[in-house]
Design goal:
It is a single chain. The chain is of the alpha/beta class. The protein has one domain: Metal-dependent hydrolases (TIM Barrel, Alpha-Beta Barrel). It has 9 helices and 8 strands. The chain has helices at 19-28, 44-53, 75-81, 105-121, 133-142, 159-167, 184-192, 222-233, 237-251; strands spanning 3-8, 31-36, 57-61, 87-96, 125-130, 150-152, 171-174, 198-200. Helix 1 links the parallel strand 1 and strand 2. Helix 8 crosses helix 9. It is globular. The protein starts with a strand and ends in a 6-residue tail after the last helix.
Length: 257
């Protein structure tokens, strides 16, 4: 079994203070690769340093939609930072209308800049959306994000939204949320997404899956999410692991096994 944690924040506490143990537990759980995701430019050097120090960890560059009082990315800067060979994606980017209220024009403009950078860099987007599915999909479509590809990270929307993303050639990534009792709608989506478009992730240190709820999440725990999705679909963990790993390297084509 060989799994990929397609979205984690290894520089966040408590993982950043316990990196050797975190990576050893991941290895023991069959998690061979990880994508450490950027949320702002100020901390991007930490993200890149982790990826550069470990052959099996990749990085992204981007600014999360919920971060307001941070350096605003330009397309040019995103492109410059994305030139590093360890950077395989642009993001985390997208829209979040849950945490922030008011005029969202700034958030939408930031999202568009990430899409433009993704297209020019020929690197896929890591897309966050929360209570903003319609605008997220509209902007992705209108700004031709299908030219660079994308993953809908930590997916928690309905099948209609998933179908729109799939129609653009995007991938759907399931986090520990799919294991929650309250996620009946999401479980149905996990059954329907084509097997060649599924990724799994932790979003560590957040959203630990059952049976680890209440603990800080870590890459090793993606095995629980993978097992859960495999059971939902009536396939073996080995098959789910193989497909999601292949999907990861298909989408993030500059990542090397």
């Amino acid at each position: 079994m060989s799994l990929v944690d397609s979205h984690c924040h290894l520089n966040f506490e408590p993982m950043g203070d316990d990196m050797p143990a975190v990576l050893e537990r991941a290895k023991a759980a069959g998690v061979d690769y990880m994508l450490c995701v950027s949320v702002n430019l100020e901390d991007y050097p930490q993200v890149l340093a982790i990826a550069q120090a470990h052959e099996n960890i990749f990085a992204s560059v981007g600014v999360h939609p919920c971060y307001q009082d941070v350096k605003e990315p330009t397309v040019e800067e995103l492109l410059r930072l994305a030139q590093d060979e360890k950077v395989v994606a642009i993001g985390e980017t997208g829209l979040d209308y849950f945490r922030i209220e008011g005029d969202m024009a700034w958030q939408q403009q930031r999202f568009v800049r990430h899409i433009e950078a993704g297209i020019e860099a020929a690197k896929p987007l890591i897309v966050h959306t929360r209570e903003a599915a319609d605008d997220t999909m509209r902007i992705l479509r209108e700004h031709h994000a299908d030219r660079c590809g994308a993953v809908m990270h930590c997916f928690a929307e309905d099948w209609e939204t998933a179908k729109k993303a799939l129609d653009l050639g995007f991938y759907i990534s399931f986090s520990g949320i799919v294991t929650f009792n309250s996620a009946a709608r999401l479980k149905e989506v996990a059954k329907q997404v084509p097997l060649d478009r599924i990724l799994v992730e932790t979003d560590a240190p957040y959203l630990a899956p059952v049976p680890m709820r209440g603990r800080p999440n870590q890459p090793a725990f993606v095995a629980h999410t993978a097992q859960y999705v495999a059971d939902l679909r009536g396939i073996s963990l080995d098959e789910l692991s193989r497909k999601t790993s292949d999907n990861f390297f298909q989408l993030f084509s500059s990542a090397r096994r």
